[in-house]
């Protein structure tokens, strides 16, 4: 296994926790909080720093004070809180997740960090991303893409929430060679970046940047065509 990749267990969890389907029965508050802490231990694992390169990612997002950013599938707010720091004091970072426990986690985290003025968390529907129209400078997805259903329609809808010069950034794991997949190095449901490009083109977007600085992931930036 390549040294720069996260462990298989961590990778598998990263690919599922942010957009997992809610349980049919609502857990008790105590159980929900414990589950959020369990997920947080995975998403906030110290080894993520080396392969996710969050500081470099934030630098390449080219954020500025006053920007309004949506982080969809935000999980613990790993990037949402970093984004909040960059767009402060006038900007807004909103972490969206379909899991109420993760939304609660982000809200508590924002309060602890005294970032409630420009960082908040909200629930989002898994299949119908209805966000405020013409509102966002950036919509950000990290380790989430393969969980989105009917992606062309999804991003056509989402485009309405972008400002005129707004952007969408997709960061996700590269699809490895078949031999690597068969070895069990990564799950087989990853979406290669050329598929992402084709789907965004069908959704009416134009590729603006294709960055390759991440050791095991791609970074694609799109604007409305």
TrEMBL record:
Keywords: Methyltransferase, Transferase
Gene3D superfamilies: Vaccinia Virus protein VP39 (3.40.50.150)
One record GO biological process: methylation
Domain of life: Bacteria
GO molecular function, one term: methyltransferase activity
InterPro entries cross-referenced by the UniProt entry: Methyltranfer_dom, SAM-dependent_MTases_sf
The Methyltransferase domain, residue ranges: 64-204
PANTHER family the record matches: TRANS-ACONITATE 2-METHYLTRANSFERASE-RELATED
The protein's name: Methyltransferase type 11
